[in-house]
Structures are given as structure tokens and as C-alpha cells.
Amino acid sequence: MKRVILSFLVAFISYTSSFAQFTEDKPKVVVGIIVDQMKYDYISRYWDNFGEGGFKKLVNDGYFVRNGQYNYAPTVTGPGHASVYSGTTPAYHSIVNNNFYDREKGKGVYCVDDKRYTTVGSDSKNGQKSPYRLATTNLSDEIKWASNFRSKVYAVSIKDRSAVLPAGHAGDGAYWLDEKNGNWITSSFYMKELPQWLTDLNEAKKRPIDKYMKSDWTLSLPIEKYGASTEDSTAYESLFPGKSEPTFPYSIKKGVASDRVRAKTGRKYDIIKGTPYGNTLVTEMAMHIIDNEDYGQDNFTDLLAVSYSSTDYAGHAYGPQSIEVEDMYIKLDKEVETLINHLDEKLGGGNYVIFLTADHAGAQNAGFMRDRMNFEAVNISSKEDTQAIETVLNARFGEGKYVASHYSGQLYLDRELIKEKKLDLEEVQLATAEAFMAMPQYAAAIIGKDLERGEYTLGYKGLIYNGFNPRFSPDVYGVLKSHNMDYGKGGTTHFSPYKYDTHVPIMFYGWNINHGETHAPHTITEIAPTVCSFLNMNYPSGCYSNPIIIPMKK
Asked: What are the boundaries of the signal sequence (predicted)?
């Protein structure tokens, strides 16, 4: 009996020691930070107004990839988060857009909607989400598997898709903000009930979010310090609820009282997303996760995915030329500093690694381009363009509604109608492409059949090819000319394969990473394999990119 017990103890010590050696020379925690709609040049443009402990610390003490690029289109949030963490493009992971047309269902779908699950943390339907459409594993999944499910993996964002897609299929939890009641919620895909610490946070009498809802968004610095931006009020900005001009300060309390749309739909707390307090809430939640889930306290590397999305709301509302966007980044710089300081306090410097990038960049406002850059740019309407295309197809193939879905050049044909009329799909695709090219706002049109047969590697054709998934992607891609956009007159958007939407920062900081930088071209799909190489583990299943060669301390 003693011999049996002794053998068991030897085997157990050997087993646990092997894991201790397995995690030796690895960071205790990986923190992935994605900043929504962060253009590469924001680092240099706003540099003088940043403190020393945020973005400057990442640049001065970490490794900065200055030529970071998205290698597919369209450039939007869902595919961006899926691609960074899976190390591959929509062609493989299948998240082709935030919203896209599902031919099997015959309707438009949202990339993380899943009615098989229920909301946890609220009585709303905002938690009916899952990553089931993500067709490959991602970094989070591989970390869980490499540790035999001992690593902790959580994700947090005010947007559901920005939490669900990074958390992957095996994550312990993904949390996002419920715009109905201001709670942090999740899906029953992850858990049956919230942990007690989060329930206490949601049910506290004095929640931070309620304080922020009564606050003002004021400038961080004297207005003359905002030299990287235009004057405070321009025609290129949208209006905050209750405001007659896009000028500081912004009263969130007055905005809530004036916002009839959000009041009618029961989305009161949605207003906080477009202010810097949305990012503050994410930082606070990230620190709660670190503290309450005991991050970095064992031999298995944990992962925390943090997505700052208020930058995207500000970009859409005010545009990259605005003081509002500059101030948003000045305040985000402080959030990054706060998170770094918390990691230093809890884990110790050098025991964690951070990577920071964006899910896409953003275009300049079309009106700004016309008025101040003397550049021909227009705001288009997908609805009007669809009508023009339908007219052409009806004249050629007979009466019918041929367009099943269309947004910003991504056009899905009604394939059932084409079958009923015994038409050739490729012929209809080609006629649609010709209709696109008859409109002066488009630079090119590419049909799905060509993307299925050929292989494109250069220019926007290469990016569209990398984003093309035969099952879920459009029948025809109409490529708008540079700075033309399907958007209103105020603010901006992102979607295109042009550099203003694809060029993003990529940074690595902490652990054994030496200071340095590179101007060599690298893509965001190289981030996941780089982190996997730090951890000596498998790459995600659809990852065909190589890691970035980063100088290490040992």
C-alpha cells in the first residue's frame, strides 16, 4: 500500500512539476487591448498631449510596429476582433461583416446573435449572443486547451461583439454593457449566473455608471492645446442629444433628458458609450476581473481581452479632424496608464505582456475632404444605388427584385429568383458589376465567381479576396472611390480597403520584450501567432500567418 501511495506521489509531483516547467519563462497574463477605430497617426498627432504612463510608455518601453495593416476588407468591428484573435481573415473564420445576409436563412443576420441562449445579468434580450459563427479557433481557445483548461480567459467591452469574438468558444466569460439598465451582462453560453462579485457591482446603490450619467464631458486641457484638430464647431460633426452645436462641454444628464429615441426604445444607458466614460467603465471592469478572478496567481497563463469602443462612437459622430476625438484619446491615454499601473501592482512589472492594436481605422469626413482638401468625395446612398441596379437588371432579365441585400457596395443577389428564372448566376453578377461601374462614385466592381476561381494578392482586390467567404460573402463587391462613403454629412465611418481604413498601430509591451520599432510591413493576423510563440503553443486553427520577430531580453 505504501509503495502504491509513494508511486502516486511521485507521479503527482512529476505531473505538477511538468506544468511548472511548462509555464517557466512565460508571462503570467496576456492582456489584449483593441481600440475601436484607432488610426495609426493618432499616436503621433496627439503625442504632445499624452502623459508618460500610457501610449508613450508602450512606445518608449515596448515594441512598436509602425506599418501595421489590415489584410482584408471590409474593415469593420466584428471581423476586426475575430481576425486579431484568430490570426486569420474572414475568408477562413467566416465573420465577414457585423451584419450580413445569410443565404440559408434568407435574411440578414448579426455576427454574434444566437437565440439559443439567454441574457445573464438582466431581463433584456441583449445577452442572446455566442461565437458560434466563428469558424476557427482563436487565441483564447488555444490558451485554454494548452493549459488543459486551467488558464482563465475573460473579455470585456461595451459592445457585445467586441467581447464575444475575442473570448472565443472556450472562454470563461465575456461581459458587455446592457444599454437598458447599465448592468454588465453576459450570455448563458458562458455561465448560468454572474459571479457574486459582479452581481454585487451591478446591484450597488452607487454604481459608477449612474454617477457618469449625471456628469459632463469636459476638455482635459485648455482648448488652445488641441492643435492637431480643427476649431470646436464645424459642419463635419454630428450633434449630441440636446445640443444645437457640436461644442464643449457636453452634459450627459441633459442629453439623456433630450434623447427621445433612446427613451422610447428603452436604451437609456446607450448614451454613455459615445463619451469617454464608456472607456472608463471598461477599465474599471477589467481591473475587477483581474482582482476577483485571481489573474496571474498560478502556473498557467491567463488572458484578458479589453476592447475600448467609445473611440468608435466618437469617430462616427465627430470625425478624425475633431477636438472631440482628440480629447477622447487624451482621456483614453489615462485609462491605459491606469490599467498598466494596476497590472504592475497586482502582478509586478515584467510578469505580463500587453498587445495593443485597432479593429480598423477610419476615413476622413467626405465634406472635409471636399472643402479643405480640394478632393472630390461624396456621400452616397446604398438605397439609391440599389434602385439604379434594380432598374438595369429588370431591363435585362425581366421584372423582379434581384437584390436581396446591399450596403456600401456589398451586394447579395436573390439566388432563388435567379434559379426560378433559369438565369445564369455569373451572368447576373456581371450585369450587376456593369451597373456599379455605370455610377461615377465607384472605382471597381468584382464578382463573387471571379473571387471563387482566382487568387488576388495585390491592392484592394487582394484585400477583398482575403475577406471573401463563398458561403457568406456578397455576390458582387462595388468598390467606392477613395473617401466616398455610405454615411451622413456629420462624422465618419470605415469599411473600405483604402489605407485610411487599414493602417493601424500594433504594439507589444512588458514581460521579456525589448524596446524597438519596425517600419517593415506586418498584418494584424500576425498578432495571434506572435503571442502563441511567447507561450510555446499551437496557433489558432485557421492561422496561416507567421509571428512578428520581436527582440527579446533573453
From this structure: 1-20
Q: Is 301 a catalytic residue?
A: no
Q: What is the distance between the terminal CA atoms of the chain, rounded to a whole angstrom? A: 46
**Degrees (nearest 5) of the Cα angle 501, 404, 392?**
90
Show Cβ contacts of residue 101 under 8 Å, excluding neighbours closer than 6 positions.
107, 108, 109, 404, 405, 412, 472, 474
Q: Which of 77, 280, 386, 493 is the catalytic position?
A: 77
271 vs 508: CA distance, rounded Å: 32
Residue recorded with cell 450580413: 100
Verdict on whether the full-model pTM lies above 0.70: yes
465: amino acid identity, one letter: Y
Question: What phi, psi does 354 have (nearest 5°)?
Answer: -115, 135
Answer whether 412's CB lies under 8 Å from 405's CB.
yes
- Reading the block at residue 379, the C-alpha cell is 456621400
Burial (CB < 10 A; 0-12, 13-18, 19+), residue 285, is: buried
Lookup result for grid cell 500567418: 545
From residue 295, how far is each of 117, 301, 345, 509 by CA, in Å?
Answer: 27, 9, 12, 18
Exposure class string for 362-377: b at 16+ Cβ within 10 A, else e: bbbbbbbbeeeeeeeb
Q: Which three cell numbers stand for residue 233?
A: 464647431
Q: Which residue has the cell 457591482?
A: 201
Quote the CA–CA distance of 470 and 473 in Å, as a whole number: 6
Q: What share of the chain is helix, strand, coil (3-state, %, to 5)?
A: 40, 15, 45
Compute the CA torsion angle 522, 525, 527, 529 (nearest 10 deg): -110
Cβ atoms 506, 500 nearer than 8 A: no
- Asked whether the bond before 74 is cis by omega within 30 degrees of 0, the reply is yes
What distance lies between CA 264 and its chain's CA centroid? Answer: 28
- Look at phi and psi of residue 530 and say left if phi exceeds 0, alpha if psi is from -120 to 50, else beta: alpha
**What are the E-state strand segments in 266-334?**
302-308
Q: Say how far apart CA 333 and CA 34 lie, in whole Å.
A: 13
Contact status, residue 256 vs residue 217, Cβ threshold 8 Å: no
DSSP code of 443? E
Residue 271's closest CA among 243, 252, 245? 252
Q: How high is the pLDDT of residue 264?
A: 85
Task: Give per-10-residue mean pLDDT for the chain (554 aa).
Answer: 39 39 76 98 98 98 98 98 98 98 96 98 97 98 98 98 98 98 98 98 97 98 98 97 96 94 90 98 98 97 98 98 98 98 96 98 98 97 98 98 98 98 98 98 98 95 98 98 97 98 98 97 98 97 97 86
Query: What is the grid cell recorded at 532?
Result: 502563441
Residue in 220, 163, 208 with CA at minimum distance from that of residue 334 = 220
